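Q: What would this chain look like folded?
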Amino acid sequence: MGAEESIDDVRALWALLEQRWPENIIEPTLARIAALTDLLGSPQSAFPVIHITGTNGKSSTARMIEAVLRSYGLRTGLFTSPHLSDARERICLDGEPIPEEKVLQAWEEIAPYVAVVDANSAADDGAPLSYFEVMTGLAFAAFADAPVDVAIIEVGLGGGWDSTNVVKGAVNVVTPIGMDHRDYLGDTVEEIAREKAGIIKPESVVVLAQQELPVAEILLERAVEVDATVAREGLEFGVLSRGVAVGGQLLTLKGLAGEYDEVFLPLFGEHQAHNAAIALAAVEAFLGGVGALDADVVREGFAMVTSPGRLEIVRRGPSVILDAAHNPHGAQALVQALRDSFDFTHLVGVVGVLSDKDALGILTALEPVLAQVVITEPASPRAVDADPLGAIASEVFSDDRVFVEPDLSDAVDRALALAEESGQYEGIGVLVTGSVVLVGQARELLVKEKGGSDA
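A: My prediction, written as structure tokens:
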């Protein structure tokens, strides 16, 4: 792969890494990433970790945890995936994507060891390090070099065999678990839960979102097995009240050590309120022993949370909303949030999905809130072609509600035209969803068009 060569441009580095084994394909082994981190001197042990898994809500919860800890004056590292526009979004220092020069410094540090691991793996007839494994190594090296006071690490896929699971989280967080990635994680929610339970480490604190009973039992069994302390949403912590506010919602949260009222969260949807409660409990667990947190500091942290591509309004008149829901569970949460926080009378969807996703389940979940749907294609070799996806959409929507535009720009234009032709003067809008890749493309297109920054 040329891993040992010098790279002096971030775009060239990303192009080099994208030639590697893609992150949507996993092999159940930690051998390669463990070999890399051993050669690097175990940088993931240089800082305390909050480790996060689940099916939906991981990135938003991770960003909330990071923001509140940063409001406490801690230097933070944040590793999330996938990215929307720029791979630097995956590795953040103090709430900002890692600067290009620091990416290159981290690559210069790890590149020789990546080459060694690749060579050793090849000698054993194995595969080289994957894209995600190398990105994980980059993040660990960057966080250790910073250095950070705490790293919030989101699992890429699954849990036990995920490359991030070489960390030992002081706090482990499990957001709601549902069906996704069946090819790798299992055909039942119980199988998926067992894989995700693999991040729960001995003598850690595990913060659990509300789960289906079979999932909760599996997670609790793992916690008992490794002597982890458990904090459960709905029992030890939770959402006491929430109300819709301009630009988000106003919450009263019950934490592990106290209650916090008048917490403004600039994100929409009841699911984000629950993510906030999970994040608060994780912060309290991490800062354990200090009693109730300073409510003003908590409010400050939540008020500065952003979660791009999650019910994000990127245009008004008519409104265009982006949401990265990419499985039925996420689509259901999206629908509930739209009903809860918006007053659309005519909403047009722009939907594209990847081939390993449940397209029928996503479209079925979205149908009740969409007057019409424009089917398109994410810019990915894994994208479902627009025509067959349009045929699936026709099984859910009547034919006169389905339109097909393979090009995203054309699809957005068609959706805007349909919204404006509806005869409504208020409450019209466009929703782009179904794929993180698609939302990333749409964000680049629409944010650049309006001359905004890609925060």
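Residues 314 and 446 are 7 Å apart (CA to CA).
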